[in-house]
Write a structure and sequence with these properties.
- The chain has 150 residues and is of the alpha+beta class.
- The chain is built from two helices and seven strands; from the N terminus they run H-E-E-E-E-E-E-E-H.
- The strands form two sheets. A five-stranded antiparallel sheet has the order 1-2-3-6-7, sandwiched between helices. A two-stranded antiparallel ribbon has the order 4-5.
- Strand 4 and strand 5 form a beta hairpin.
- The protein starts with 24 loop residues before the first helix and ends in a 10-residue tail after the last helix.
Amino acid sequence: MIRNLVKYPDPILRSLCRPILEISKDVERNIRDLLDTLYDASGRGLAGPQIGFLFRIFVMDITWKVGKSDPKIIINPEILYSSNETQNNLERCLSIPNQSIGVVRPKVIELLWMDENATINRDSFSGISAAIICHEVDHLDGKLIIDKKK
């Protein structure tokens, strides 16, 4: 189901999200809603608090606009490593419409997370994938791209 996006300055976006302890029916429903809402809003990443679900979860699909869809469900993400080498990208946020902000992010990260099957995963990401993951993890910690504005 497509959900309404929570928009800045709603205080929900400043919430620290709680870990997900099990893949319940509620979590499964919110995963579907996150993906439906992401595609409807033409985004590449969407975090739980952006639909009012205050748990440590986000979805991303960086290829669906230009090729084959490859959605990833990221639950309880933990960034284990961030490179000293950085990238500077203009980022947009579905919760802050009509603004692009230059944000410096690590070029490479290593991530530990659980997927929708409760499988623990660990992998490295670089470039736009690393930037999107960092952006979405910020959402789970109540941080927004406007906090990074120079």
